Amino acid sequence: MAGVGSCLPSRVVSNDELATRLDTSDAWIRSRTGIEQRHFAAPGTATSDLAVGAGAKALKSSGEPTVDAVIVATTTPDRPCPATAPVVAARLGMTGTAAYDVSAVCTGFVYGLATAAGLILAEVADRVLVIGAETFSTLLDPDDRSTSVIFGDGAGAVVLRSGTGTEPGALGPFDLGSDGEGEALITVPAGGSRQRLSGVAPRPGEAYFAMSGKDVFRHAVRRMTGSAKAVLDRAGWNAGDVDHLVSHQANLRITHHVAEGIGLPRERCFNNIAEVGNTAAASIPLALDQAHTRGVLRPAQRVLLTAFGGGLTWGSTVLTWPQLDRS
Ligand code: UT7
Predict the structure, then answer these.
(1) Average confidence score pLDDT of the chain
(2) Where does the record place the Beta-ketoacyl-[acyl-carrier-protein] synthase III N-terminal domain (predicted)?
(3) CB within 8 A of 180, min separation 6: which ones?
């Protein structure tokens, strides 16, 4: 890993603001999720706008003006077709560069890292920009308090380059998994080929994101804990070797359960969910950038990443933090 950056839309939405239109309260949201505020993109701002902001900062941080491939992990592409990555690459001055999206909901960034690492190992690319970007607010049912209070918008990005397995910044191994039997637990029912929108109005609420919160909570704890343990095993690390757990910011209580399951003290978890909510595929790279900028992540420290999301999907990897400028 050779560069990191992030981008948040300027509008901050507090719990109190949500409580003016939904039957909820700041106290409920804080105590059940750890969230205090989130950022929402203004109408007219698309996922690619946030992705370009984060990608430009990651490129600058890496000292590389261009890369050989651009991967965008997102649940909220600018359009159903084409993918968002090519326009992001073009706006970053990389017309002609390989660019594609990865769709694994909140696990998308970890899947994106794995595919980027694969491109490098296969010598298809020497440097890859991996961006997690979301305008999740565009999917939320404004009347659904169980989802509206959780999600936020944002983007984070990293640059990967080829290197040795022993230098700071070395990434991997990976653990990835899925269980499509849980498809209905996290879903936007309408708009794809299963429930088409062409010429047909979606059934009420079915064009919005829906989640079975309690079931998802249990799956998230189980899968992130299992995947994190598997990747530690593959890396030959013990829990005690991990300086920081940067997990998908789904719910502060989930992160604490996962840390406990792995055998890590809570103090080793980096959390920014209070400030940004759950930003889906953007959550891990956004957290990495904030932890780096705040001096929490320091060179050569050992970092464990784990994520869980719709699909169901999950994935984990490890890295040693590189020497990067802080600006
Ligand atoms: O990022 C992808 C993965 N996503 C996740 O991992 C999210 C996982 N799930 C969660 O984080 C939690 O399940 C939620 C935050 C979504 C919900 O928290 P919970 O502690 O599981 O609450 P619950 O769904 O069991 O609901 C408890 C009560 C219910 O009321 P009753 O039936 O006990 O009267 C809900 O109707 O809380 C009520 N409730 C709310 N009350 C105030 C649900 N949402 C709200 C709300 N404000 N926003």
Answers:
(1) 96
(2) 100-180
(3) 311, 312
